Amino acid sequence: MNEKVFVTVVDNGARAMEQVYSLRRQGYLPEDIYILAHDRNRTDDLAEAANVSTVSVEEEGIMQSMANWFRSRGDELRAKLMSMGCTQREADAYEYDMDRGKLIVMAKSRVPATRGL
């Protein structure tokens, strides 16, 4: 299956919660919605409060997840974003936003892969 990723940048936790509720109303499942913040604790706290996911080994793969132990937080965030389907350029821009205190809300929607003839 291919996955299509929706990404938005919000200013604060209240806006992140609004976005999460909006995505749920659109039919996204809680396990397909993610929150990222520059601070790990803030990411975990917001994800728990919203009952959504954080980007983990399942999305990144074991090798990327292990590599994150040795990366700076910025490099780790960019790797997480790219594992969710963002390009390098998008990941750089989103990480820049998180450096400035903004939050990222993402949702993945599984869509059937197209078959070649």
From TrEMBL:
Residues 6-101 form the General stress protein 17M-like domain. InterPro entries: GSP17M-like_dom (IPR025889). This is General stress protein. It comes from Paenibacillus ginsengarvi.
